[in-house]
Design brief:
This protein is mainly α and about 160 residues long. It has one domain. The chain is built from five helices and no strands. α1 packs across α3, α1 packs antiparallel against α5 and α2 crosses α5. The radius of gyration is 18 Å and the shape is elongated. The model has no long low-confidence stretch (mean pLDDT about 95).
């Protein structure tokens, strides 16, 4: 039974971390550059709409469960090959810092700033100021999340290679 739970946690860790890495990569490489070409109102409306749509149960499970799963995975592999254990523990720490903390303390506050703005009531100058306050910081922090999720995923794969 322990082996099945250990494998199940490992597989969910890899799957959810990989999905998050893919989401972050896609967002960084197509979504933000694409909507970045829109005018201020179009950009802010698009981002506001996507931020509201992405908060759903499947996203929340896939995006935030690895914060816990990766530590459980590392713990269940504490007696494994040192490369496996250290790859898994580094993946957990990196995901926690680079996805969990950055999301909660950097991206979410920016999303909330945008969400509470009634864009249609803002002047051209106010839209420009809001975009300047939002876009560059959000993208900068999101690139950090992309790197963290990709690296966590790669570390999981490295650890998997060395499991016995």
């Amino acid at each position: 039974m322990e082996i099945n739970l250990k494998i199940f946690v490992l597989l969910l860790s890899i799957l959810f971390t990989g999905l998050t890495a893919g989401l972050c990569f896609t967002w960084s490489n197509s979504i933000t550059p694409g909507i970045g070409r829109l005018d201020n109102l179009g950009f802010l409306q698009s981002f506001q709409t996507m931020n509201r749509a992405i908060i759903n149960p499947s996203f929340l499970i896939v995006f935030f469960c690895p914060v816990i799963l990766l530590f459980i995975n590392a713990f269940t592999h504490r007696n494994a090959c040192p490369v496996t254990f250290w790859s898994f523990i580094l993946a957990a720490i990196l995901y926690f810092l680079g996805i969990g903390l950055i999301t909660v303390f950097k991206n979410v506050p920016l999303n909330e700033l945008l969400d509470k703005s009634i864009l249609e009531n803002l002047s051209r100058v106010e839209l420009e100021e809001l975009r300047a306050k939002f876009e560059q910081p959000w993208n900068r922090w999101h690139i950090q999340r992309t790197i963290a999720s990709f690296t966590s995923f790669a570390l999981l794969l490295i650890g998997l290679i060395y499991t016995k």
